[in-house]
Amino acid sequence: MSKEKEYHFALILSGVTEHTEGLEDDLFEAGCDDALVFFKNNTVYLEFDRESESLDQAIISAVKSVEGLSSEIKVKRVEPDTIVNLSDIARRSGLTKQSISMLVSGERGDGTFPSPISKVISSTPLWKWSTVADWLLAHEKLDSQSVQSAHLIEDINGALELRDSASIKRRKQWLKKIETSSVA
Whole-model pTM? Predict the structure, then answer.
């Protein structure tokens, strides 16, 4: 007997708009009766509460259902996002924002909290969630399931990005320039 659990996640879509006719009905017919359709900032996204044996099975089955509707519809990303701010870290870890802020500054803990990866010089830096989750697990402030989920969503989003062949080609060109450039 399988043990199914309910997983909450969102899929960010391309190839559809809020004006796409019959979208909700088509999604329902495709097996997405466990999702709500949202339109925000010219983006269509689906919030799922999907029962499955694992998070990866839940996400993959949802992606296949959505993309099976039309060759035009693609899943761009899975959320919760892999880039987080202090508030996100606090919410996901169950700690207070003040506690996270003190861990970041070194006022609390061992002073090894991960460095931000973006907006470092701003008042609202951003961290890679999987790196923070690993650190929180090592410091017994987060459970291993949350860490596994962080890595899974990051990996699935990376796989989804690989489908953009033009972007991959440009990145490979930049990588080649970086690796073969000599400093004058």
Answer: 0.87
